[in-house]
């Protein structure tokens, strides 16, 4: 006997009911009301009022929020929207351009979903891709839309949860990002403002100029190896002031021989150089006479050496100008001058650390900055297996670089850090390797800088030595 299944009436979704029975004028009026009530929450309101932990992140995402995930591109972005339970409210991915018109269309698309689904706030989650998200995040926050970030590694690991497929594209990622935001797996983005924005841009510009300088020096080395292989013995230093002044006028041995020793000295006097370089004039001429460099292609070699030497000189002038501006801006930060009391930490290192760290008031503890720099300790252990503890290497690598440079310089110049380094590497229990000790000292310098900038306290070298555990009789002697 065939039994026919009883047909049931299609259930009506209240949200669809609202959407279908609102006129265009009513939707437009509601959008205007919602648009006025939009409020963007940033790190200033959330992270500086205590630690913004996972429970706080989950509580921040409320039932009244439209959760939007955005996949960032250089020219085109894609967004999809869900509610608090993960149900998709958009029919598919919405594509918009990286322009004012594109941002306006994305905002209108989100506001329409807010009104038709009974929401009143918007949170936009994005995967930070290079520098392409800066303009979008700043624009959305200015319009009252909260912006949060998700870790790109978390997006990569979560892509199979959606459809049990390794497939990845710009239309699938926005929903994965939105679900990560829903579950509280996000962080608050930080875009430096005012003096910190200037310092970060200046620091990045300085790094770019340094890379260009190194690149030109390497190319200059190549040309000199071809046409004047003895150049290192003759000049001593390829990027020194005396060498560069000569190479801009006499780049190859035949030109140097024509000038003679007196001609070289005249070049240096015209450039107002001082030092022991004048004594090398005869030596340079002698090496030019016995050079085995190529003679074919000298004209092209002459022009290339001149050009690279001039580029290095120009870059040195630009670097000096950038560093002077960066140092002056650095000194405008309260209590920054106290940090310079640490021997070995100069203006370059301090400016690099502060430009990468940003506003110190957004951190509640130095451990947060340590994690941001990638110097946080991590270990992989399970059961009886105990993995090796190492630093995470996740975070701002330039901040990690400058902290490490500060540690190396402090160990070389400050007696208190020298003693700490010796103690860490020679103590009886758990002696550290030299690299491990430098990492520990970098973290200690970070804590010192954090305390000085937060409290305005003067630097005290004696407090650092409290970490050194000596036998009781030695401690009494040192105290006496």
Question: What are the key terms here?
Answer:
alpha/beta, Nucleotidyltransferase, domain 5, Helix Hairpins, 3 domains, five-stranded mixed β-sheet, disordered N terminus, disordered C terminus
- The CATH level-2 architecture of the largest domain is identified as 2-Layer Sandwich
What's the quaternary structure here? Answer: single chain
Overall form: globular
Residue runs with pLDDT of under 50 for 5 or more positions:
1-18, 473-480
* Lateral arrangement of strands in the main beta sheet: 3-2-1-4-5
Mean pLDDT figure: 87
Query: From the helix content, strand content and strand pairing, which structural class follows?
Result: alpha/beta
Our count of domains comes out at 3
Q: What's the number of helices?
A: 22
Description of the structure:
- With 480 residues, the chain is α/β, with parallel strands linked by helices.
- It has three domains: 14-182, 2-Layer Sandwich (Nucleotidyltransferase, domain 5); 195-330, Helix Hairpins (Orthogonal Bundle); 336-378 and 389-479, no CATH class.
- It is 57% helix and 7% strand.
- It is built from 22 helices and seven strands.
- A five-stranded mixed β-sheet has the order 3-2-1-4-5, sandwiched between helices. A two-stranded antiparallel ribbon has the order 6-7.
- Helix 12 runs antiparallel to helix 13 (281-289), helix 16 packs antiparallel against helix 18 and helix 18 (397-413) packs across helix 20 (434-455).
- 29% of the residues are buried.
- The model is unreliable at 1-18 and 473-480 (pLDDT under 50).
